[in-house]
Each structure stands twice: as structure tokens, then as C-alpha cells.
Amino acid sequence: MRAELLIHGARVVTPNGVETLDIACRDGKIVGLGDLHGHWQTDEVLVARGLHVLPGVIDTQVHFREPGLTHKEDIEAGTRGAVLGGVTGVFEMPNTNPLTLWEADLNAKLQAAEGRAWCDYAFYIGGSQINATQLADLERLPGCAGVKVFMGSSFGDLLADEDAVLRQILQHGQRRLSVHAEDEARLRERKALVEASGDVRDHPQWRDMESAFKATRRIVALARETGRRLHVLHVTTAQEMAFLAQHKDRVTVETTPHHLSMVAPDCYERLGSLAQMNPPVREFVHQQALWQAIRNGVVDVIGSDHAPHTLEEKSQPYPNSPSGMTGVQTLLPMMLEHVHAGRLSLQRLVDLTSVGPARIFGIEGKGRIALGYDADLTLVDLGAQRTINNSWIASRSGWTPYDGVRVTGWPIHTVVRGHLAVRDEQLSERPQGRPIRFLDVPAVASPGADLTSTGDT
Ligand code: DOR
């Protein structure tokens, strides 16, 4: 009956629904739920009346650019933005410099994160021709989020576009394989279109609906053939959603707040190449299909695809401007605004940002407010109105496509394994992030990782 932190008086989103409960946290875990205030000995009581407590938000797609491109982003600033935005865990992508292809690359990222990451983290290994046959071992390394494949070139040199290579990648490993599905051959064929026009409004015509749909059809067929589970990242088209609805037994689906919140051509007219990302933000009819897929359950998770580039880089003439926008810090505020507008329920949001990531990737001890789970908690004020602006953004790139956007619903406190990383919207304590653990991977044996506490509540 002793807690280090007791959260008192909030409305808590649990597997039972929304209840007024106290949450007792000790040694990084949830050790008590109920009417606890006054009954438990506790070092600190955080009075949270009027707030909702969500299971910590897990963003399963971010690019933190370290090593090699730290003028755009780094692990410290990226995870700082995460916790300020209510995110308690991230999966980071392998298109850094060097690419994350081998054990040494993964270990370098784990080492770089130690003592500098504000939230918990796992790193993807990139799947390519040169490491394909080693992936079964690589994907089981502690701290590895799984394998990520780029079927179409985006930013960086990672690419696996031929069926023979993709088949080999799919055959080596067991975990869910994450894929960026745009068809490289079609992208090459169509690039002349934008080289001629130089107009960013043509971005969704260059990387058109069929480029995405074709790649998705190919990879789903190969995953069926090889019996591998698949996760299709940032799905953007109505056609893909209708197709993927027929493959939900083994294929999971991500969409992003960017594709749910912006539409072409408006976003390109307002923001120019700041709105340029891959796969592109598309027309209203596609956005409607993404919302429909949120409502009918086809979408499993929302990932931000946080992909920072500096404003200077973004201001190069299109198509030389790099694709990608920041997003980790605005994922939750934008989605809370969608909850406020009635586009999805709070329960469905939690399903997409906590329960879903834990379920589809087999994350240990996260994604749920329940006894024995990690005390990762995102405390939000559903009625708070704020204006998002660039000066709030922690990213080294220092900008957001939502500069000036007013939202209702805001993260107030962020708790990472019982530590208040953010208190009253301000950073607090020190970076406390640790590697995320997975059910089908051995625990991380790095200094600072508290292996003895696993499963011990
Ligand atoms: O727009 C994008 N930017 N899409 C990607 O797939 C990669 C990302 C980046 O790393 O910049």
C-alpha cells in the first residue's frame, strides 16, 4: 500500500470504460487502481481532477535522424517533443546515416538513446538485399521494433523493390514486417511529370494512387505466399483501404494524422512543399475513406511519420525539396481535436494509439491501464484550447504544418514508467527513457535496464 506517485481524481480510460479512479505507481508499474487517496502511503499525489488519463500514447513511426542527420532531428529533441505531445513510447525508423541494417547500427542507436531519451523507444532494422538472410536474427535483438522495408524510394538510400528480394526478406523472420508501399518502377516512370512542372501540387499525381495500391497488392500477395504477418504503414488511398479490409486476418494498417487532417490541393496551396510527404496527402475522397476505415476498424494504429527536414531544405524548388513533416508532438493534439469534432471517440483514439500498437507488435507491459502494466500515462484536458505554433515544437527542425491551428484537447502531464516527464505542460525530471520490451524478444541487457523488475509488481 505504498506508492511513489498517486494520481488522484481523474477520469481514467481503462479496459472497462471511463471510470473515476486513483492510480498508484511504484517502481515504474501500476500497483494500485481504485479509491486509494488517503489509504495509501505515497511520496507524491498528483491531483488530476478534470483531466482524463489515457494509457501512454505509443507512436510507432518516427524518424529521429540520429546518427548522421542531426541538424534535422536527434533522439533527445525528438523524444522531448514526444513527451511534450503526450507520447510515452516511439518506434524509430532505419533511414538514418548510416542506415540501421546490422546489430552494431542498432546498438549505436540504443547507446545514443541512453540517458538522453525522454520516452521509451525501440528501433527498426531496415530490410534490404544485403541483410535479407540475416533478418531472423536481427529482428530478435533487444530494442528492435522489427523490420521496415521501403518498396519505393523516399528519403535516404533504403530500398527493396524487387519481388525476389522482398520474398527473401519475408522468408527470414517471424515478427510483423512493416512496409512503406509505393511501387518504385512506377515512381521512376512518372517522375518526369514533376520534373517538367516543378509544381508541388502535382506531388499526388507523380506518386499517384496506383503507385501505392500496386505496391500494397504486391506485398500482401508475397506475405500470403510466405505466411508472414504484415503492417502497411501510412495507407493513403480509398482503394488500398477496400483491399486491406479483405486481408485483416494477417495484415494491419496505419494511417497518419497528416492524411486525416489535410487535403490536396488545399494543403499544397497553403503550405507549398511543407506539406510534401510520401506517400502524399491526397484529395478529399481519399481522406473520407481513411476516416471510414477508422470507423469500421480497418485501421489498427495511428503513427505520426514524424520526418523532420529544416525549413531551408524544404524551401528548395520542388521536386528537390525533401519529403516529410514533423508530427510526433502534434499527433495527440490533432487527434484530440478530431475527438472534439466528433470524428472518433476517445475510446477509439486509445485503441489506435495505445491498445493497437501493443496488440499488433506484441509490446510487453504497455498499452493498457491495468495492474502490473508499465505506469505510462498521458493526462489530457479534453476542454483545453490551445494554438499550435512553431515556437512550441521541440524538433531541431523547429516547425509544424499546423502552425497557427487552434485545437480543443491538450496533453497536460506525461508519465513515463512512473516518472513525470512533463508536468503542467513543462518538462520535468530528467530523460528516463528505456528500450521497449517485446513479448517475442529477449529483454535488453544494457546498463540501466532494470531486468529484475520485469513481471515483478
Ligand atoms: O515523407 C516521408 N519522409 N516519407 C517517408 O517515407 C520517409 C520520410 C523521411 O524520412 O523523410
UniProtKB/TrEMBL annotation:
<dbReference type="Pfam" id="PF01979">
    <property type="entry name" value="Amidohydro_1"/>
</dbReference>
<dbReference type="GO" id="GO:0046872">
    <property type="term" value="F:metal ion binding"/>
</dbReference>
<dbReference type="GO" id="GO:0004151">
    <property type="term" value="F:dihydroorotase activity"/>
</dbReference>
<dbReference type="GO" id="GO:0005737">
    <property type="term" value="C:cytoplasm"/>
</dbReference>
<dbReference type="InterPro" id="IPR011059">
    <property type="entry name" value="Metal-dep_hydrolase_composite"/>
</dbReference>
<dbReference type="InterPro" id="IPR050138">
    <property type="entry name" value="DHOase/Allantoinase_Hydrolase"/>
</dbReference>
<comment type="similarity">
    <text>Belongs to the metallo-dependent hydrolases superfamily. DHOase family. Class I DHOase subfamily.</text>
</comment>
<comment type="function">
    <text>Catalyzes the reversible cyclization of carbamoyl aspartate to dihydroorotate.</text>
</comment>
<dbReference type="InterPro" id="IPR006680">
    <property type="entry name" value="Amidohydro-rel"/>
</dbReference>
<dbReference type="GO" id="GO:0006145">
    <property type="term" value="P:purine nucleobase catabolic process"/>
</dbReference>
<dbReference type="GO" id="GO:0004038">
    <property type="term" value="F:allantoinase activity"/>
</dbReference>
<dbReference type="InterPro" id="IPR002195">
    <property type="entry name" value="Dihydroorotase_CS"/>
</dbReference>
<protein>
    <submittedName>
        <fullName>Dihydroorotase</fullName>
        <ecNumber>3.5.2.3</ecNumber>
    </submittedName>
</protein>
<keyword id="KW-0479">Metal-binding</keyword>
<feature type="domain" description="Amidohydrolase-related">
    <location>
        <begin position="53"/>
        <end position="419"/>
    </location>
</feature>
<keyword id="KW-0378">Hydrolase</keyword>
<dbReference type="InterPro" id="IPR032466">
    <property type="entry name" value="Metal_Hydrolase"/>
</dbReference>
